[in-house]
Design a protein that fits this description.
single chain; 371 residues; alpha/beta; 4-stranded parallel beta sheet; 11% strand
């Protein structure tokens, strides 16, 4: 029997999940068919890996999809030679998964040596894309986990050069490159450098802006609950429940799934608004990696913390301007969003959690400060 999932990738055959068809169709039509390179930047546990896998499944009939991940690739960033051979090894495995000819697999399996490893990797890419009748798509999940940004930026520079030559009719390369991660590539230095340092000169300036809404709409939540109701025979006011879940979560994928999972596992014979309210209260009391990550991001970025504190405790009103580094960072973490042109906390659950966090810190500061 299917379950609601809050860990790892969601699989349609195993988990209750919203129908991703419209999102996948839009990505294919607006980006991949256009040969665009782009980055899916969303907060932690926002469904990035799930959408990448859904794209892989849809594209695999007409494209060669190289679906890579940097999640366990920290040792790739020792030096450029190691990085290039690590990427080549992963592509070899993906070609094998795609049923590539043995000669192509053997070519990619040969170690890249010499003084210009990126040039050699670029030649392999051109050879691969020339020999296949199908177009080739490169996808890299967790692309912002690189421990040495310069190595990764050099790799992006090579992809950029090949993209520009392709557009001029001088090279053959990937149809599309999709990077997925929390951090925008142009701001990757934000993870490891002081807040005063910024890095905007990224070779990824060829990438188009990714405008697909990754949050779950009320209609998408309703579709998931309708499927659940059909499978289990449990009755509910689907529209009312969906609206209440959306009210608390703003459509944040993990929060939606967490509430549904809690109600399902509570053994309720019928889903009610009260169930959703109880689930929201339980979520706020729980220890979870999403809240841990949010607190870490807030506490490690002084100006972001001051902005959130001002909004929640002092009624601070700010225009939503993505060019502002603090606002952009808060939006990238999924904490801040825009409403009627102003900066707001992204959803009711985050607002409540962060308000309690800020008040607790303020009260302790006042108490200990007076001792």
């Amino acid at each position: 029997m299917k379950r609601f999932n809050i860990t790892g990738v969601c699989i349609p055959e195993k988990h209750y999940m919203v129908n991703l068809t419209e999102k996948v169709d839009k990505i294919i039509n607006d980006y991949i068919l256009q040969g665009a390179y782009f980055t899916i930047n969303r907060a932690r546990q926002y469904g990035k890996t799930t959408i990448m896998n859904a794209l892989d499944m849809r594209l695999s009939k007409e494209y060669i999809v190289l679906n890579l991940s940097f999640e366990a690739a920290d040792d790739y960033f020792t030096n450029l030679q190691v990085f290039v051979n690590g990427i080549a090894m992963d592509i070899t495995e993906e070609l094998r998964r795609n049923g590539a000819e043995n000669s192509i697999i053997e070519e990619w399996g040969q170690k890249i040596e010499g003084d210009y490893p990126l040039k050699m990797l670029g030649r392999k890419i051109s050879s691969l894309c020339t020999r296949y009748d199908k177009r080739v798509v490169l996808m890299i999940d967790e692309s912002d986990r690189s421990s040495d940004n310069q190595i990764f930026l050099s790799f992006l520079g090579m992809l950029r050069e090949k993209y520009l030559k392709r557009e001029a009719g001088k090279d053959t390369t990937f149809q599309t490159v999709i990077l997925s991660g929390v951090y925008d590539v142009k701001n990757m230095k934000l993870k490891n450098c002081p807040e005063t340092e910024k890095k905007y000169n990224s070779p990824w300036n060829i990438a188009v802006d990714f405008q697909v809404d990754m949050s779950f709409s009320k209609r998408e939540i309703s579709g998931m609950l309708e499927e659940y109701g059909r499978d289990t025979g449990i009755s509910m006011d689907v529209l009312g429940i969906s609206e209440k879940i959306y009210f608390y979560t703003g459509g944040y994928p993990l929060l939606v799934s967490w509430i549904c999972k809690w109600i399902d596992e509570s053994g309720a014979k019928e889903w009610t608004i009260k169930n959703v309210e109880n689930a929201e209260k339980e979520l706020l009391r729980s220890d979870n990696t999403l809240f841990d990550d949010m607190v870490k991001n807030v506490e490690n970025n002084r100006n972001l913390r001051k902005t959130i504190r001002g909004i929640l405790l002092d009624g601070l009103q700010l225009p939503f301007v993505k060019s502002d580094p603090v606002i952009n960072l808060g939006a990238m973490f999924g904490i801040l969003s825009e409403k009627n042109g102003e900066v707001v906390i992204a959803n009711v659950i985050f607002e409540t959690f962060l308000y309690n966090h800020m008040v607790a810190g303020k009260l302790q500061s006042q108490y200990f400060g007076g001792m």
